[in-house]
Task: structure prediction
Amino acid sequence: MVKWGAVITGFILAVVFPIILSPFIDQASVLGLFLAGFVVGLMAREGAPGGFWNATVAGAFGGIVLAILLTIFGAVLGGFGGLFIGAFAGAVLVLVLLFVSMIFMGIGGAIGGFLAGD
Result:
């Protein structure tokens, strides 16, 4: 079951953590996603599978929001053709970010969920 409070928090942290860590670490985006997933897993308190699922949903939510913004800005800046290009790029972006979030945020979420327990 998805815990939307944890998912929204994870989405915000997935944006904030890489920004905070980037002056100190080269791969700040990867570590930031992992830490955001870890926090989501801790907040979900549903064990490893629940932490993995909630962290993956948080990452997918971020991809969906980014795809919507890309489609809107494509339509505003490029007109009718920009709408289709933005929508196509957004759809591809959602699939890629879902895969990336399953790896980095999902693993962090599973570890956090495992530590938090059921």
About this structure: Residues 47-116 form the longest helix (70 residues). The two ends are 13 Å apart (CA to CA).
